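Hello Y.,

Per our agreement to keep a running log of every chain we model this quarter, I'm adding this entry. I've kept the format consistent with earlier entries: sequence first, then predicted structure.
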Amino acid sequence: MTVDDRIRALVANLPNVLPTLDPSARSKPAIVHALVMPLIAALGYALFDPREVVRDAEVDFTIFLEGIPTLLFEVRSSLATPAGGPGPALSRAHASTRARAVIVTDGVVYRLYTDTRNRGVLDDEPVRVFDLQTKDAALLEDLGRLGKADFDLDALLAAARLGPRANALESALAGLLAGPDPELVALLHRRVDPDGALDPDFRRDVSRAVAHLRASPAWVDSSLESRSDPALPAEDDEPDEPDEPDEPDEPDEPDEDGPIVTTEDELAGYALVRELVGDVIPLARLGYRDHQRFFAIIVDGDEHKILCRLHFNRVRRYVGIFHGPTRERKYRVAKVETIEQLREPLREAARRWASEGEQR
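Predicted structure for the entry above:
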């Protein structure tokens, strides 16, 4: 099952779980075990592996990605307190760990906070609010972007920058198509068959047409795939990135339990990156570590000192360049040679590690 499948299954089971939690005496431990821990597991994190999930007195859950604290959870029995934002303990933990984001939740509503202005202080308002009871498909897909397999906070922030009105419009459009909405059916009927009768068969046909549209390549802007222009940042693309329909047998991510296979393209990409930055940072400091989900080019043999990652084990390929310890910006590339067009951002990232070596 994919992350999205697991989240949908968890949401579908909410009506069975919530009645077991007495609202008048809903305790935090009950919420943690019945709601929050299943969601963290659905996102793909190993609950009982301290390398991925840690619980302590200061923060209910700290989620690690590649050994770096990335996501903090604070669980409350209710979000009815003023603003329901991060408390002092969570703010201190964020400041000390520099985690990319924090979540405040009552097990059903998940409020995502981050430091969008890079001040070292969490924003007062959440960038996204995930209410599992709304069953909003687009919202649940966005929640899946916090999963281990394809963590993409930048995409969530890019959507948040569109503003609440744009997010509301996106949700409303998703709702219109999901039904489909009777008003939408009537509108389409007037466009397609103004002189005919609006009967149940037409509504069925609209449902089929919407399903076909959402499954087709036209639903997303696939024109970027054939461009010969320089590589474009992933955040400039459409928020959703489904597998291409004409390649159903290729998973978006490899099997986490399968063997790690270093491909020729990954090694060619590694050689090309070394060529592009070799006069900025000594080549002796560069190495690589291959993982199931990506091929990391690292500095000084330290997996926390990442120059870039080659995300080649998927239908759409990316190069993720690190402009900070946890700030990865993804660029879509059509083939290995496209990496040459990322010369400047790669050299900028290399200069940061080169200057750190000089300071030491």
